Amino acid sequence: MQKIADLHNFIINLNLVAAEQVDSFVDDLVITPALRGTGVAGQLIIAEKDYTAMFYIERYPHGGISEDALLAQISAWVIQNDTERTASIAFPLIVDIHDNNTADLEFGISFNELIIATADVNGTIDVDGTKYALI
User: What is the CATH number for 108?
Assistant: First the structure.
């Protein structure tokens, strides 16, 4: 699940909090077998993965950096890096305020990723007698 890993790294690289304050995990993973073409000769979409990328940020310094600064960065990242998305994105944010300076943030973003394979005589995936390898 590349998108959750990429977004996790993006959030850490914003340097708004220490890396150990950011946690993420996959929730509600659903695999849908597909076996359809990609429009590229020799390639197949083997399956689709739909999941919610859950993020938890501890001790976000909301007293010094507005949550809006983080949410704007995340929104821009999703728009630029989830180009296959056909529907608008909306995600809930739970804010647990500790004091005037820190709060814990929790949010989840739904993603869809394709499992794509290409024809390869050394591949391990057999579809109707043709061997495929993941790309």
Answer: 3.30.1360
pLDDT tens digit string along 12-67? 999 999 999 999 999 999 999 999 999 999 999 999 999 999 999 999 999 999 89
The set of residues, in sequence order, having a beta carbon less than 8 Å from that of 20 and lying 6+ positions away, is: none
For residue 28, the enclosing domain spans 2-33+49-113
Which residue reads 């790309």 in tokens?
Answer: 135
* Whole-Å CA distances, 30 to 18, 50, 82, 112, 114: 31, 5, 18, 10, 12
**How many structural domains are present in the chain?**
1
- pTM for the model: 0.89
Specify if 53 maps to a domain.
Answer: yes
